[in-house]
Specification:
homodimer; about 140 residues; alpha+beta; Nuclear Transport Factor 2, Chain: A; six-stranded mixed beta sheet; 3 helices; globular
Chain lengths: ~140, ~140
């Protein structure tokens, strides 16, 4: 990545750039990782599906506006690369600087798409990885 | 799908079979939709990442053992099909038979993989969408 308009030569490089931008709270760097396409989709934990560059950018701006400084430790679970699509499934272990205990981990599915000039992010779907759930028939966790 | 070992000729057909098996609570039909591969991954809402046929099957058996009868209304958001991978992002509107009000919707990312004999499910990642959405009644793909 050596200019504003370059994409990445591998999906793994795009993923690294994604989490670097996330840690840095750098909105411009974050949006460079995303494909500038109407069909990109970003689902933050317990959030709705944001579609297209305007909604996706607004979502990240809101997250970064908290000013929290985050440290990510990534635990890759699966990679699937076939032709022009790549899917990464991973645990995101997140620590907020200044806090002594890590936050509960997140599970993320990231889908990268290759177009003419390389790989960019097409989908980010993150959700809490709550391993210990107490049974409660009223909670949606029981449905599914 | 006309024998135990056939896969689907399109990822959309595999997705339809997935939700039909889910509604029916049919574990055998459910596991036919999944690729019988060590790298399949299933993430239920607020659950952990289940990997491989044994864990994935055990997860569905647990869900189906509740005996709840579910009705799905699917609201497709995105499809991305490139070569041998296909990604579907959708809202799952779920109603439990016997309840008067629908449960909060889920967001799901489903990844299908094509191998020699056709398409099967490789990843299901579902999480609560929390934010109430009002689907256009003309848009959702009703399974009934």
């Amino acid at each position: 990545m050596d200019s504003n308009n370059s994409a990445w030569s591998t999906p793994q490089q795009a993923e690294q750039a994604f989490y670097q931008a996330f840690e840095a709270g750098d909105l411009a760097a974050m949006m460079q990782v995303w494909d500038a396409a109407a069909d990109i989709c970003c689902i933050h934990p317990m959030g709705k599906a944001l579609t297209g560059p305007a909604q996706v950018s607004e979502g990240w701006a809101g997250i970064f506006s908290s000013g929290q400084s985050l440290e990510f430790t990534l635990e890759p679970l699966h990679w699937q690369v076939q032709g022009d699509l790549a899917v990464s499934v991973l645990h995101e272990h997140i620590r907020v600087r200044g806090e002594t205990r890590p936050r509960p981990p997140m599970l993320a599915t990231n889908v990268y798409r290759r177009r003419g000039d390389g790989w960019r992010l097409w989908l980010h779907h993150a959700s809490p990885a709550v391993v210990e759930v107490s049974p409660d028939p009223a909670m949606p966790a029981h449905l599914h």
